[in-house]
């Protein structure tokens, strides 16, 4: 199942693992495995990738980063197949992502000669990139009756869905807002009128999907495997300039 109606689907460069994710989800459809179990699996894969970086096994790192991205898609696929959407899964997924992102970049800092300040700057850049992509994607999904577990404005604790506890939603929502709140506010301030956008063309969303976490992890894995680890931090700092570029294009499209 897709997050968007067929006519609004675009080539998502960050979602290369979706076909494999669907196979995994289908294989787990009639088992006791839940989307939360798959989320835990992608966290484990991310931690193994970090251990590989520390031990300089960079091809193995690339493998586990790609596997993490596949499993990251598989938890949502399994939720849709089993018809068990949940805010618990949605926020656990996001909080796990941001923690792993920070740990991955800090590990890269540890094995290179890059400065800690630039590493933190790269982390903020990566998060702002991902937030812009998610912002536009959620707007598109809400506009075209797609998956709506994610909301354009995450400013109020949602009511627990069937099968989940409100207390779990409350805790994870607080963690989510602590983790992502500043990034959400910055992107909204930069492009507040995006929620009124009449057009978010497929080609534009494909371009913005290079900001998606899956594509970011793929680039990190490739750069590590090619022994370009010293360029990872500078690259993501520099690539952040495209945040302004994409916002400018979005405004031109909808002027």
UniProtKB/TrEMBL annotation:
<comment type="similarity">
    <text>Belongs to the CDP-alcohol phosphatidyltransferase class-I family.</text>
</comment>
<dbReference type="InterPro" id="IPR000462">
    <property type="entry name" value="CDP-OH_P_trans"/>
</dbReference>
<dbReference type="GO" id="GO:0016780">
    <property type="term" value="F:phosphotransferase activity, for other substituted phosphate groups"/>
</dbReference>
<dbReference type="GO" id="GO:0016020">
    <property type="term" value="C:membrane"/>
</dbReference>
<keyword id="KW-0472">Membrane</keyword>
<keyword id="KW-1133">Transmembrane helix</keyword>
<feature type="transmembrane region" description="Helical">
    <location>
        <begin position="116"/>
        <end position="136"/>
    </location>
</feature>
<keyword id="KW-0808">Transferase</keyword>
<feature type="transmembrane region" description="Helical">
    <location>
        <begin position="231"/>
        <end position="249"/>
    </location>
</feature>
<feature type="transmembrane region" description="Helical">
    <location>
        <begin position="203"/>
        <end position="225"/>
    </location>
</feature>
<keyword id="KW-0812">Transmembrane</keyword>
<dbReference type="Pfam" id="PF01066">
    <property type="entry name" value="CDP-OH_P_transf"/>
</dbReference>
<dbReference type="InterPro" id="IPR043130">
    <property type="entry name" value="CDP-OH_PTrfase_TM_dom"/>
</dbReference>
<feature type="transmembrane region" description="Helical">
    <location>
        <begin position="36"/>
        <end position="59"/>
    </location>
</feature>
<dbReference type="InterPro" id="IPR048254">
    <property type="entry name" value="CDP_ALCOHOL_P_TRANSF_CS"/>
</dbReference>
<dbReference type="GO" id="GO:0008654">
    <property type="term" value="P:phospholipid biosynthetic process"/>
</dbReference>
<protein>
    <submittedName>
        <fullName>CDP-alcohol phosphatidyltransferase family protein</fullName>
    </submittedName>
</protein>
<feature type="transmembrane region" description="Helical">
    <location>
        <begin position="91"/>
        <end position="110"/>
    </location>
</feature>
